[in-house]
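The passage that follows is intended for readers who have already worked through the single-chain material. We present the inputs for a multi-component assembly, then the predicted structure in tokenized form, and finally a short commentary. You are encouraged to pause after the input and sketch how you expect the pieces to fit together before reading on.
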Amino acid sequence: AQKITQTQPGMFVQEKEAVTLDCTYDTSDPSYGLFWYKQPSSGEMIFLIYQGSYDQQNATEGRYSLNFQKARKSANLVISASQLGDSAMYFCAMRDLSGTYKYIFGTGTRLKVLA
Amino acid sequence: DSGVTQTPKHLITATGQRVTLRCSPRSGDLSVYWYQQSLDQGLQFLIQYYNGEERAKGNILERFSAQQFPDLHSELNLSSLELGDSALYFCASSGGTGAFSYEQYFGPGTRLTVT
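Having made your guess, compare it with the prediction:
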């Protein structure tokens, strides 16, 4: 069965520092996609970054990068140069691309950026 | 503003009732996704429609149904409501062809409270 695990319920980081949010996954599907979403306290969901299981390069989007280690089944989100506006809940998700196309989400990590 | 609209913003209803949540995707987006976010279940993928056809089904209860209309707006119908259905319901849309387009744009959500 597919599973996403985020083991850090909460994290603190100093402003301007980099932070890594952990995500491990489990799937037997050969083709899948990995996603990160941000949910600020205002409640909206914001798509951040995507990594396909066959992508050779790690995905990057501005200050966000996804550290994809396929053999270890991990898809950690790295935020560089943290800003106060990065304080939010972050969700890792996976989508099966070879059959059901279902999404599953992790339980989230709450990040607090300190001034 | 993501360009995805959801109505109503808030909905309070009683157990056993039926409600309809409405979503208008971003202009030109063919895919619509529905998600449920509750305190005990976390974030759950419910269903995806692409250009009027169901494309992926998640953990959607039999009491729930959805459809996408020719103008691409979508409705999520929740019936025989239970207290546990109280949640934030998100709609998201994405462009691209086929069943899969990785970047999603989320609406602000509908907060459903069942009393």
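Commentary: The CA atoms of residues 94 and 105 of chain B lie 6 Å apart. Chain B has a mean pLDDT of 92. How closely did your sketch match?
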